Amino acid sequence: MARWTLTVPLDSQSPTPRFVQIARALAEDVRRGRLRPGEPLPGSRALAVSLGVHRNTVLAAYQELEAQGWIVTTPGLGTFVAEMAPEDASAEPSVQAAPDVGFVMPPAVETRALPRGSSAPRGMLSLLTGSPDVRLLPSELLARAYRRALKRGGQRLLDYAAPLGHAGLREALAGMLASLRGMAVTAETLLITRGSQGALDLAARTLLRPGDSVAVESPGYLPAWDAFRLTGANVVPVPVDAEGLRVDVLEQLGPVRAVYLTPHHQYPTTVTLSAERRQRLLAWAKASRVALIEDDYDHEFHFDGPPVLPLASQDREGLVLYVGTLSKVLAPGLRLGFLAAPAQFISRAASVRAAVDRQGDGVTEAAVAELLEEGEVQRHVRKMRSVYRSRRDALVEALRASLGSALDFTVPAGGMTLWARCAPGVDAARWAEWGLREGVGFVHGGHYTFDRAPLNALRLCFTSLQEDELREAVRRMAGGLEGMLKDIHR
């Protein structure tokens, strides 16, 4: 058996997977009699070494051949050529193609994904998404909290649980929202979700029915629009200016079931909804009996003074469905968000959640509850606020030094991103393409418009890169701009 070798060389350029090539070659050798019934095959490690492939590739080939009936594996003894060849011995072993859909599917609902920094190629500096710098996450503290949570909660945390989420986390969040955001909230008016997108989806499923209309900011947050559309609702754009959502335009719309907005740091322009418009919006919602879905995705990060309190802190009529997240504070991968709303709505949302997702990750929720109760999350926020302020300042300084004539912007008072308008003659969409050639990723304004209309602006996210990385990113942006302008004037 040591003298046996595959008669067909592996082709690394072939579209056929290597494990299928190996399986076909082995089956052909059985058909030709080079491998006889009952003859032992090389071990998966030995064959992998001789072929220069990963052992898993050989294991996959053996599994495919065994499923076809060409070989048999006996635990403790090894793998052997089957005593009898398959009935259809002339057929080559192959992976059966998955069938196309055999039932009637409804028309697809259009969704529009945003660029994600996690998908950036190696070596590229990403200004794509407003994500925290996970390199600064207190991972040892988090690991310790997980261990303590499992020790204290044991099997209870691994069992089925209430769809509202971990009681300790809801209590801790309620205390934080009351003390830091001025909200009248209790554990009974909170529901823990898998990130803020989970909260948006749950609010949409609970509130909306096919044919309902939801007013949204434009430019705005596309994943929220997708959540609304997936319920069968219509999304109606309302423009944004330097004071936030144009409430005067909203008042002229026909009936809507809800308004979705990001009043603290408008997504993506970063402007704050003015005090006058806040009062006008709340009065209009009360008179119209319309729900306000407030997405306060980065409330913790304010650099030049105290934060503006949420609309929910002024709500005395039960109008606001408040969406928040811990993803921006800790890490997106933890998938922790929450929905705060009147108790009657939360009760109904919990029933909807039970039918869709059942519950969240009890261990993670318990661990983060420990960090909140011990003040570790608050300490981390204070540290990150200082770090991100310095990073904002570094980005602003670099932009002014290298791209001052190409970009016009207002320094954001908080948040995780900077919104910059391009000068006449500078095409934001083409610049973004040229930036990729230079190794820097950023998003142009057209990604955020309702009808994909061009918007000659850039959204630059500064929190996930260090100061020297931000300066290098701006240098690459300048290189991309130079290349674009030279190409235009050729």
**Tally of separate helices:** 15
State the major sheet: 8 strands, mixed
The CATH topology of the largest domain, please? Aspartate Aminotransferase, domain 2
The CATH homologous superfamily name of the largest domain equals Type I PLP-dependent aspartate aminotransferase-like (Major domain)
Q: Helix content range of the residues, please?
A: 40-55%
Going across the biggest sheet, name each strand in turn.
Answer: 4-11-10-9-8-5-6-7
In the CATH scheme, the class of the largest domain would be: Alpha Beta
Shape: globular
Instruction: Report the mean per-residue pLDDT as an integer.
Output: 89
The proportion of strand residues reads 5-15%
